[in-house]
Amino acid sequence: MVAHRDYYLTVLPLTGETAKHFDAWVNVIVDGEQAATLMWDGPELLGAGYEFSRPLKAVGFDEAGQAQALDWTERVLVTHARELAHAHATHLEQRLTAATRALYALTPAPGKGKRQIRDATKLEQAIQQTLAQHRGVGLLTVEWITETKSVTRQRKRGRPGADSVPLTEERVRYVIQTVQRQETAITAQRDRLGWRAQVTNLPAERMSLTQAVLHYRGGWVLERDFHLVKDLPLGLSPLFVWRDDQIKGLTRLLTLALRLLTLIETQVRQGLRQEQQTLRGLYPGQAPRPTERPSGKRILQAFSRAQITVTHFVLDTQVQWHLTGLSDLHHQILRYLKLSATLYTALINNSG
Asked: Taking the domains of the chain in order of start, what are their residue ranges?
């Protein structure tokens, strides 16, 4: 892209070199060493962040296929999204709750089928495995106690003799007494949730930090479209083709269908945003549930669930037709799509 003088704006995956440096990028702003820039979308506060530049080098190829050295400056945008941080914080609390429950379950009360841990080393191993499984190492501490019980039994089976000496054993079990939250560590981790790094080669005078974040948020998520092509209502799975021309034709047909589905979704969302309205009735079994960002799939399902019927009556010389009426939801969707309701009522004419 740089070789062809194009621009890019993308999120860095937390792998490779990025994974090594990401914590340091976040720490400088969380610890107050780096000033933060607040990012606003009109009256809505999206979050905060900062940026820095770094020089990059690579080997590219020109139009003639000749190798050429490339040098450019890349902007790294380290940003914090409030909604993303809230979602991650909720997930953190869910993990800690699940970890606490699992830790207490390691040492259940004695009972039938309740296996006891009688070795301190095994208990420590089980605790560390549970904490690691729920990513709670350093966030939870466990205190356990030792319970000792004396059990007396005969050395041999049968009725004891006059000179028999019973055997007394000390049975030990370990019990987790408390699981404590390390609030300082939890707060430190919570402060580092919701951060991500984006990179771009756009000059700052062309697009500021806030503008870059807004531009990326407004972009289409291509992965979601790829999933739609593999899933209903466009899925490839029900169809099996063998010839190359069939595969090419089917792919083009699905691409057109995807474009239409995307257009329907975009038009309805734009109409809702302009009128500051929501749609209700798109979720089966949850009729009152509103949404301001309906998916194209749910919009189509609103019509497929309508159970539309066309009834034809013939009485002597009179012919009558009856078409199931559309609901307010259907009329609202058609209005956002800028389609006339006559397209629907014309089904009677087509049926004749």
From this structure: 9-87+190-217, 105-186, 225-290, 307-351
